[in-house]
Amino acid sequence: MAEEKPRAPIARKKTTKADKGAVVGKTSAKSPSGTKAAASASKPAAKKKAPATPRAKQSQPVVVERGDVATLAYLLWEKGEPGDAAEHWLRAEQELAAA
Fold it and tell me: CB 3.0 to 4.6 Å from 38: which of 31, 64, 88, 92, for a disulfide?
C-alpha cells in the first residue's frame, strides 16, 4: 500500500478582540476636529418609522384527527341523520373544525 503524505496545515487568519467587534462594510467617519459631536452632525438625519399597525390575527389551520371524525360520523349515522356515509363524514369534519 502506498504511504500517505502528511497534509500541510490550513492557514487561518488570526483574529483579535478588535476584529470580533468590527462591522464589515461600514467605516467610521471622523470629523476634522476629532469629536463625536462633529462627526454625528455630518451624518444625515435618520427617517422616522411609521407606527406599527396591528395586523389581523391569522388563524392557524385546525388539525382534526381522523379517528375523531370517524367517531362523530358514526354517531351521526347512528342517530339516523339523513345522508350517506360521505355526507356524515363531511358534516363531522365541519363540526370538529368549528369547535
Answer: 31
Using CB atoms within 10 Å of the CB of residue 92, give its burial: 0 to 12 exposed, 13 to 18 middle, 19+ buried. buried
C-alpha span between 71 and 49 (Å, rounded): 53
* pLDDT exceeds 90 at position 89: yes
71 or 52, which is more confident = 71
Gyration radius (Cα) of the chain, Å: 35
What secondary structure letter does DSSP report for 2? P
Supply φ then ψ for residue 29, to 5 degrees: -95, 125
Whole-prediction pTM value?
A: 0.40
- Residue environment code for 38-77, b if the CB has 16+ CB neighbours within 10 A, otherwise e: eeeeeeeeeeeeeeeeeeeeeeeeeebeeeebeebbeebb
